[in-house]
Amino acid sequence: AMVPIKKYLLKCLHRLQKGPGYTYKELLVWYCDNTNTHGPKRIICEGPKKKAMWFVLTLLFTSLVCWQWGVFIKTYLSWEVSVSL
Fold first, then answer.
1. Which residue range forms the structural domain that includes residue 68?
2. Measured between alpha carbons, how far is 41 from 31 in angstroms, rounded to an integer?
3. Which sequence ranges are marked TM in the entry (predicted)?
4. Residue 6 lies in a domain
5. Within a domain: residue 54?
């Protein structure tokens, strides 16, 4: 009986601190509300058509950034190194 009360009070405390919730949806909404980037904020604020557009654009540009990081790391690691002591 004590565990559910403790869990409920912990959830209430979390909400009072305006932190993210426990579910993925609550966490995503909290992130979108508190981020400085434009895409995620608009995913939750706009109408259904604009939500879809912003979701696709955000996913596209996030993918491009990750791809560029991969290219950069692959290029960096491909440089030959010779060490002589």
1. 20-72
2. 8
3. 52-70
4. no
5. yes
Please tell me the distance from the alpha carbon of residue 79 to that of residue 59, in angstroms, as a whole number.
Answer: 31
Rounded-to-integer distance, Cα 13 and Cα 19, Å: 9
The separation between the first and the last C-alpha atoms of the chain, rounded to the nearest angstrom, is 68
Residue 2 counted as domain residue: no
Report the alpha-carbon distance of residue 19 to residue 58 in Å, rounded: 23
- Digit-coded pLDDT (tens) for 26-85: 777 777 777 777 777 777 777 888 888 888 988 999 999 999 999 999 999 999 888 888
Q: For the chain, how many structural domains are there in total?
A: 1
Contact 46, 57 (CB under 8 A): no
Written as one letter, the residue type at 73 is: I
Position 68 scores a pLDDT of 98
Model pTM above 0.70: no
∠15-50-32 over CA atoms, to 5°? 25
The answer to whether residue 42 sits within a structural domain is: yes
